[in-house]
Every structure is written in structure tokens, then in C-alpha cells.
Amino acid sequence: MHRSAARLALVAAALFLACHCAAAQQTPDAVVKQVVDGVMQRYLAETGVPGAIVGVSMRGRRYFFAYGSADDAGTPFSPDTLVEIGSCTKTFTTTLFALAIDRRQIAATAPAQTYMPSGYSLTPAAQPITPLELADFTSGLPDDPTNLPRRLERRGIRHYTSADFLNWVAQWTPATSLPAPYLYSNAGIGLLSYLVMTATGKSWAEQLDAEILRPLTMRDTALRPTPQQRQRLATGHRRNGGDAPPWPIFAWYAAGGLRSTARDMVSFAEANLGHTEVNGRPVPAELTAALQLAQKPIYILPNGFNQQAMAWVANLGKDNPNLHPVIVKNGGTVGFSSVIALNPSKDLAVFIAVNRSGARPTAKGMEIARHLP
């Protein structure tokens, strides 16, 4: 090797060693901040979203990072800012379904008609649908009911009622044989919640509170926030940047109606990671079992490598061992985008909420999970 080339190689090696040693000397807190800031600051610059909140749980230690503004007055996000979590709500519903399965209150592969609310019958072609097919999106039900009012504000449950929804379900006929090919469906998870309510004899809200929210001390997760909680609600924005109206409480609210905070969602994530204690309280063993059942992969999705569970999706990360496995669920409303990502092998969870629709934070949650040690 030429003398000058050898000198350059030595310098490069020294620089690499110095950088490596500096990184090794960083505290875990500094590493988490560096990774999250690196991903989120670039993301906000590229998308122009008004603001975001990120919650991370890494080996039982929690971190929260706020970016931009939660409202038009410039109020910063905090771990206790309420956001619309949209379809992340589905993971709460499938957990309640899994609890009912484990308690033998509902059979996952029984005909859905067995648990239909009194007075409603599925069409003959739809009667073979099972609760599990509703949970894993193979029921054939479309994303939303096809007879909704045109205006968003007229779609709320006060105008399009539970009876309207169930009457539509009762008249619907699948277009293919069952189980149907994968088709994401708010209506399907919504119907699943009505079946679970029939099977257990308890309302969805009652079960949610008793089985998940109170055991995990999730005080700020609700369909209808209190007046005090509404003071902490972030302002959502449409894709074009304009202020968005509050997301209606639909008749299929169990598929997407919850409001929550980063602090609460990190608590939920830790329970999903299998922590035996959350917020200083023991997690009931049957809740842990239900959370794990809801995450269990059922079939491979059309992309050939992700696997569908009960609402959750397992991203196998076959091209990157640092992303194996990550279990994800995203959510979106007319004003918010969100994602919760779990990596059990790292004892790591990431929650991101952004106050603009269509902002697609899912890839960013997975990127953060990939780069954290």
C-alpha cells in the first residue's frame, strides 16, 4: 500500500473508532432522543404536518417527544394531549373478543348469526360468517356501510343509528364464498363488537373500562371525553391543512372512535409487550393472554410476507433482522394519523400521533423501532 494511502486508512480507522466509542458512551436516554429526533424532524420537514407526539417504551423505560403545535394557538403537544386514534381502536375491540374467546363466552369459528343482537338476522349467504373472519378481515364486509349519508356530520350515531347499521348488515350479502379474500373493514370490526356484546351481555364501553382501561390505569382513553379532557384535545387538520371537525362517534364506534393520549397508549403498548406490571399495578393474567391471542398471526397478506392477526399486522421484517418482528396497527381520522408499533424481541413499543389526516406515520414508527437498540 502506498504510504499516503496507508496514512489515510489509519486516519479513517481512528475516526471510526472515535465515533463508535462516543456512541457507546451515550446514555440510553440520549440514544433514544437521537433516533427519534432524527426520524421525526425529517418527517415533519418533509410533510409539513402541524405537530406530533411520540411515546416510546424501551425495556420498561418511557420517553415522550413533542414536535410542532397541538392547536392553532401554538400549544405544544404533551404526553397528556388527547388525540383521535382512529383504527388503533380496533386492537382494543379484538382484545375484548379474545377475552370472550378465552372465557368460552364466544366461539371464534361459530356462525356469526349465533351472536347477532335480538331481532336481526343475516341473509342466508352471510350466515356462515364467523366472528374470527370479522376480526381478521376475511368476512367480505366492505370498509364502511354503503348507505351512509353524504355529509360526515350526518354519519354520527345520533343520525345513522345502531339500528340503521344493523339493518344494513342484515340486508348485506357477500360477493364471494367465505372466508373471503382480505378486505379491510371498519364495518366488520363494528359488527364484531355487537356480537361480543351479545355473547357477554355487557356493553362495549363497560367491557373496555373494566377489562382494559382500569386495570392499566388508562384514565384519558374514551369515546366521549369529559369537559376537562376536551380542554386537552389537539386540533386535527385535513390533508389540505384546514381545521378538521371532530371525528363522529359512528354506529361502528368500536372500529375507530377512541380518543387517547401518548401516555395511555404507551401503557397499552407495554401490556401488549407482555409486561406483568403497568403503571405500578399487576396486569391480570387473562388480559395478557387475550392481548397475545389478538396479536397471533392467522394468515399471510397479499404482499406475501406480512401476516394478519386480529386487527394487528405482523411485519416480519425479513429483509432486516433489526425489524423482526414488529407488530403494528395504524389509525386515521379526518384530522389525525396514528400508529402503534411493538417489537417484543426488543421489549420496545412506539406510538406516534400526528394532527393531520393522511400523514402516514406508520413507516416512521417502524423506522424508529428498527434503529433503537
Q: Determine the number of helices (DSSP H or I, runs of at least 4 residues).
A: 11
Give the termini distance in whole angstroms. Answer: 37 Å
Oligomer: single chain
Radius of gyration: 22 Å
Strand-residue fraction?
Answer: 5-15%
User: What is the string of SSEs from the N terminus onward?
Assistant: HHEEEHHHHHHEHEEHEEEEEEH
Overall 3D geometry? globular
- Say how many strands there are: 12
Please mark out the parts with pLDDT under 50 across 5 or more consecutive residues, or reply none. 1-6, 8-24
Q: Could you say how many structural domains there are in total?
A: 1
Q: Largest beta sheet: what is the strand line-up? A: 2-1-12-11-10-9-8-7
Which class do the helix and strand fractions yield? alpha+beta
Largest sheet: 8 strands, antiparallel
